[in-house]
Design goal:
heterodimer, A: about 300 residues, about 75% helix, B: about 550 residues, alpha+beta, D-Maltodextrin-Binding Protein, domain 2, Dipeptide-binding Protein, domain 1, Dipeptide-binding Protein, domain 3, 7-stranded mixed β-sheet, 5-stranded mixed β-sheet, 17 helices, about 35% helix, globular
């Protein structure tokens, strides 16, 4: 078990190194000048700025310096937020994205299991049809539409109530998180619902359920011990990448609800060619994703005794 | 059915779990970042208002700040030698009075101007700030604004030490500036953030983090930043040490939200959380239905179609440029294509708000209006083809930004040139930084570009196409134009200068050096109880530093 874990960790490190290198060279291959601004610079000022960011070195040297800095956990200073270290940006803004993401995942996970189980129980009856219709909507309507509509509805709600029932944006209390987390988790919830439904239906037809029924096991027990527990496995599988996806993919929701999360920096850095922030956030998120996948694999073994991780 | 009961149980448990988790997150969250305090747009009891900003201010170190948002924040919490008053005229700020001669500028500072720690603002604080901005290692992109001062350029190039700067303080409240050349509008350039004072001992104590946080700044303006949660919110509190308390009415200005989403901003306004918001074209009818008082403001920026004048480029040919000038109807583009409220079709590189000698420059030197004429355009095109030795109209590359407005405009240019002149245009859509890189390297025929003013003098636009100007990215080079610009730059007599600007304007039109497309406007709404909210072309915009709340008029 420990040996397996160590091996996975080592592989993970190699993956992160690969991500870092690919991002570094990809970023430098993207046309455009990270130092360019509205107004032209004198060659002297430009040279000063290049020296400040180490851009005056050959690319190979820059790469080595950069790898060395990453190994020490230093991502450098942002190009656009000129007074802030990338480490500070990640430290200040990731917890916000993570908090929002965790809540979204909880909504998505619980909702997905619940609705999925419901649709399977009422297969081809009206609850199934209604829920599956909502699922299709949840998967196909892009999040910026959902975010805009929900914020618009909140404004209407507050106007009708004459007071602030729920804040329509900003950050600070649980009330600020509620709607953005639901919006953020919606598509994952829809996806999990569908997964849970098919997984439940697959399990219903298996031999062991029939055996349990024949043995006279109470339906409650069949449902919880045999059906639900077996059906939930695929859900756990996709949950790992989904966690990483949700905590990183909150760009749209963060912009619409004015939430100071890391997702904004992640996307804006690319538009602004902010080299250090691109590198910092990509490597950080890459490491996060790798770690989540390893974690899920370990959990897998705990939930399903048939899966032995050390083999 | 028992699975139902099971599900109900699961549902209940899940619900309880979520509630518990949310409670935990609530406390964890408030420990992490107590950010968006629940403030309303206008709070009469607290005497405060709330506004929104588009993005986190990138740079509050005034010696390095270049962008509008940092400028807006700095304009509320700092004060320079002079400022633009509510009547758009220059007025004394830290300086009580001043005098500009061709060789020298002298400023007498008021002795009651204080920093937020109670110490007086002295001439030394300005000298230190300017030397800092000029030092090569600071890497200030706007250092060029200081080049009118003796030795400034040499210091910036690293050939002279910062101490060689031609400024001196005979006493703590007198600042004498030796000018490298006569600059008739020198005092007007001083409203720019680069000229704000910085106190040396404080700057050095911040260990290179000057301006990075609320407590890493020393304030001498009407307000001070009392709270700054990065990317999330800011609060400006009244500065008790500010000398001119009579002009300041608000006790606090809140910035509870930072987002670039225009719809979200409108929603915050509707929800009574912010007191001012911009309006998009699609929101206008709703704004009218709500009975809001819609206001317009021209932000001073001019957008134009720029040519690549490098030798060997077809756009170097004046008849080809004239053909385009006659084919493109900017009225049609502004009123029928983009249809953005507050936008004005471009007729000159010099926008309408610029002041001439006594009246608006546009009144003193009205630009020649080009009437679109397709057949005349074709004649010019024929002439151009002959001169270029071409049989078919050449294909042109139009470099454009990646925002929706640029896309619509470049497609309009493409369509118009195809139908009117038979010229095929290939649109090269690029992100901002790449567009600039391609402009600098000359990889285009036409480009959609814009220019915003740095100071309140026509020269801020007038020297744009000088052969020595690095922002002249199409590399237009004309001795005749350079001569006009030289007069505008070096002569002191206003009448002579304004005549030169008139000549520059005529030259740009005659030679079709650049095709002005439009002057940008913003449409916005303000909470009606807020008075003296000032929109500006030069200086902090919007400026609420002198605003007050008056609910009686409603």
């Amino acid at each position: 078990m420990l040996k397996y874990f160590a091996k996975r960790l080592l592989l993970g490190l190699v993956t992160i190194w690969f991500i870092a290198s690919a991002t570094f060279f990809g970023m430098h291959a993207v046309p455009g000048d990270p130092l360019a601004g509205d107004k032209a610079m004198t060659p002297q000022i430009r040279a000063n700025l290049e020296a400040k960011y180490g851009l005056d070195q050959p690319l190979g040297t820059q790469y080595l310096i950069y790898l060395g800095n990453i190994a020490q956990g230093d991502f450098g200073i942002s190009y656009t937020q000129e007074n802030r270290r990338v480490n500070d940006i990640i430290r200040e803004h990731f917890p916000i994205s993570a908090t929002l993401g965790i809540l979204a995942i909880v909504f998505a996970g619980l909702g997905g299991v619940l609705w999925g189980a419901l649709t399977a129980l009422y297969r081809n009856q009206w609850p199934d049809v209604v829920i599956m219709f909502a699922v299709i909507l949840g998967i196909s309507v892009p999040s910026f539409v959902v975010a805009a509509i929900s914020q618009w509805s909140l404004v209407g709600l507050n106007l009708a109530a004459g007071t602030t029932v729920l804040p329509i944006g900003g950050w600070g209390s649980i009330w600020h998180m509620l709607v953005p987390a639901l919006v953020l988790g919606l598509s994952t919830m829809a996806y999990l619902t569908r997964l849970m439904r098919s997984s439940m239906l697959e399990v219903v037809g298996t031999d062991y359920i029939r055996t349990a029924k024949a043995k006279g096991v109470p339906p409650t027990q069949i449902f919880s011990r045999h059906q639900l527990r077996n059906a939930i496995l695929p859900v756990i599988t996709v949950l790992g990448p989904a966690i990483a996806g949700i905590t990183t993919g909150g760009f749209v929701v963060e912009i619409v609800f004015a939430i100071p999360g890391l997702g904004r920096y992640f996307v804006q850095a690319i538009q602004q060619l902010d080299y250090t922030v691109i590198m910092g956030t990509t490597v950080f998120y890459g490491a996060f994703l790798v770690f989540m996948v390893i974690l899920v694999d370990l959990f897998y073994g705990l939930i399903d005794p048939r899966v032995r991780v050390d083999q | 059915m028992s699975p139902n009961r099971q599900l109900a149980q699961f549902f209940l448990l899940a619900f309880a779990g979520v509630a518990l988790l949310m409670l935990a997150l609530h406390y964890a969250g408030s420990a992490l970042s107590g950010t968006s305090s629940d403030v309303s747009a206008v709070d009469e009891d607290a005497n405060s208002i709330s506004i929104i900003i588009r993005e986190e201010p990138p740079q509050l170190n005034s010696s390095r700040a270049t962008d509008a948002i940092s400028g807006m924040v700095l304009g509320h919490v700092m004060e320079g030698l002079v400022r633009m008053g509510l009547d758009d005229r220059l007025e004394g700020a830290v300086a009580e009075r001043w005098e500009v001669t061709p060789t020298q500028a002298t400023f007498w500072l008021r002795e009651n101007a204080k920093w937020s720690d109670g110490q007086p603002v002295t001439a030394a604080d300005f000298i230190f700030a300017w030397q800092t901005a000029l030092k090569p290692e600071t890497g200030s992109q706007y250092a060029f604004l200081l080049f009118a001062i003796q030795n400034a350029e040499a210091i910036n190039q690293g050939t002279l030490p910062a101490s060689a700067l031609g400024v001196s303080a005979p006493d703590p409240y007198t600042l004498v500036i030796d000018l490298a050349r006569p600059v008739p509008f020198f005092d007007k350039t001083l409203v720019f953030p680069t000229f704000l004072p910085i106190r040396e001992d404080f700057y050095n104590a911040t260990n290179g983090r000057f301006g990075a946080d609320a407590d890493q700044l020393l304030y001498n303006g009407p307000f001070q930043i009392s709270r700054w949660v990065h990317g999330s919110s800011m609060t400006f509190k009244r500065n008790p040490y500010f000398w001119n308390q009579d002009e300041i009415h608000l006790d606090a200005i809140h910035v509870p939200y930072i987002t670039s989403d225009a719809t979200a901003s409108l929603n915050f306004f509707k929800d009574n959380k912010i007191a001012i918001t911009g309006l998009q074209a699609e929101n206008l009818s709703e704004a009218m239905r709500m009975g809001w008082q819609i206001r317009q403001h021209r932000d001073g920026t001019v957008f134009f179609l720029e040519f690549n004048h490098r030798q060997g480029r077809v756009t170097d040919n004046v008849n080809l440029r004239r053909a385009l000038q006659l084919a493109l109807d900017m009225d049609e583009m502004v009123y029928k294509v983009t249809k953005l409220p507050g936008y004005e079709p471009g007729v000159s590189l010099f926008p309408g708000w610029l002041m001439g000698e006594e009246k608006l420059l546009r009144q003193e030197y009205p630009p020649q209006k080009i009437t679109p004429d397709a057949s005349l355009a074709k004649q010019h095109l024929q002439k151009a083809l002959q001169e270029l030795g071409l049989k078919e109209p050449p294909d042109l590359v139009l470099l454009s930004g990646d925002n929706p407005i640029s896309s619509v405009q470049s497609e309009w240019v493409q369509q118009t040139l195809k139908t009117k002149l038979g010229i095929s245009v290939k649109i090269d859509k690029q992100i901002f930084k790449q567009r600039l890189a391609k402009m600098t390297s000359g990889d285009f025929d036409l480009v959609l570009a814009g220019w915003g003013p740095d100071y309140n003098d026509p020269l801020t636009f007038g020297d744009l196409f000088a052969s020595w100007n690095k922002n002249n990215r199409g590399q237009y080079n004309s001795p005749e134009l350079d001569a006009f610009i030289d007069i505008a730059q070096s002569r002191l007599e206003p009448a002579v200068r304004m005549k030169a600007f008139g000549d520059i304007q005529q030259h740009l039109i005659d030679q079709a050096v650049v095709l002005p497309m439009y002057e940008r406007g913003v449409t916005y709404v303000v909470d009606p109880s807020i008075k003296q909210l000032k929109r500006r072309v030069i200086g902090p915009d919007p400026d609420v530093s002198r605003a007050y709340i008056d609910t009686s008029g409603e």
